[in-house]
Amino acid sequence: MDSQRRHPRTFSFEFFPPKTEEGRVRLGEARDRLARLGPQFFSVTYGAGGSTRDRTRETVLETQRVAGVECAPHLSCIGATRGSVRELLDDYREHGVRRLVALRGDMPSGMHEPGEFRYASDLVAFVRAETGRHFHIEVAAYPEFHPQARNAHADLAHFRTKVEAGADGAITQYFFNADAYFRFVESCEAMGLTLPIVPGIMPITNFSQLARFSDACGAEIPRWLRKRLEALGDDARAIADLGAEVVSQLCQRLLQGGAPGLHFYTMNRAEPTLAIWESLGLRSTG
After folding, report:
1. 35, 64 contact by CB (below 8 A)
2. What domains are there in the chain, each with its CATH number?
3. 169-174 and 197-201 as β-strands: parallel, antiparallel, unpaired?
4. What is the rounded end-to-end Cα distance, in angstroms, of the chain?
5. Are 280 and 252 in contact (CB under 8 A)?
6. How many CB atoms lie within 10 A of CB 132?
7. Which of 33, 59, 84, 272 is paired with 113 by a 20 to 30 Å CA distance?
8. Predicted local confidence at residue 105, as pLDDT
9. Contact between residue 74 and residue 85 where contact means Cβ atoms under 8 Å apart
10. What pLDDT sits at residue 113?
11. Where are the beta strands (DSSP E) in the chain?
């Protein structure tokens, strides 16, 4: 973990583009509350196949303008062309955006061809070729390995390719096993990769939703935790309390072990993240 301890500690929060006016108001409330913590940046997701392209852009520009916090739009390979990505990059540069999260993305139902970019490394290389060092580029990392990877070695090789293409940092898929993160970082260090690898953190508020997300993305819910959550049934308050306790302990271990920060998947809600933040005794970084 020596490579990670050398990086400044940063905190960031992720949102998704709202579909309704009610959702936009809820996102604004979460954004404003979390902005007071002084995050390094916010990020905004990009729907499967580019399905939220315009809403992602609108959310990014509004968030950056209203909150005064740097905002990183997600860019996805799926369904993208060089022309469409070039257009987005030019637009973001014009509006003062300096960060991106470059991902392969999920293939939507019915789509059989990924587009002109097959892998996230192709997208990173294209952004670098088009814009030089204008953008700080984050990529994804998978401490428990990507569910579609042939094996652990292949997944690490893909990650190295993304870094060599020009990534500045990485944000991991969420996980509940700190050892998986530590071992992943050690494997990266063995390959000579020293960029910051920030753990992605998922607050627990809804067990059925968490189980569905985890089954899709390959994030393991430890059996002991799954059974305890199952036993709570529909008791939302008890689930939130247990989730805050478990995830806070995870974050504490990660930070003590040398992680260079935390990236929270907020699901457009401030309270679960704030509960963890306060439990950790963190102060505003602004």
Report:
1. no
2. 2-280 (3.20.20.220)
3. parallel
4. 26
5. yes
6. 9
7. 59
8. 79
9. no
10. 61
11. 10-15, 41-44, 71-76, 99-103, 136-141, 169-174, 197-201, 261-265
Q: What is the pLDDT of residue 115?
A: 75
Picking from 193, 212, 50, the residue whose alpha carbon sits closest to that of residue 123 is 50
Give the separation between CA 44 and CA 112, rounded to whole angstroms. Answer: 25
pLDDT of residue 50: 54
* Residue 175 burial (C-beta neighbours within 10 Å; 0-12, 13-18, 19+): buried
Active-site pick, 14, 70, 138, 144: 14
Provide the token pair at 216: 């899709």
The pLDDT assigned to 147 comes to 87
Tokens 């950790």 found at:
280
Q: According to the model, what pLDDT value does residue 51 have?
A: 58
Contact in structure between 184 and 197 (CB atoms under 8 Å)? yes
**Catalytic-residue membership of 14:** yes
Residue showing tokens 């984050």? 138
Tokens found for residue 140: 């994804």
Cα gap 240→207, rounded to integer Å: 10
Of 252, 253, 240, 242, which Cα lies nearest the Cα of 277?
Answer: 252
Task: Return d(Cα 256, Cα 279) in angstroms, integer.
Answer: 15
Distance (Å, whole) CA 277 – CA 173: 19
- Count of other CB atoms within 10 angstroms of residue 91: 13
Q: What is the pLDDT of residue 285?
A: 63
Structure tokens at 163: 């870094």
Task: Find residue 138's DSSP bridge partners.
Answer: 101, 169
pLDDT at 49: 56
User: Contact at 8 Å (CB) between 64 and 97?
Assistant: yes
Q: Which residues in the chain land under pLDDT 70?
A: 48-51, 106-114, 285-286
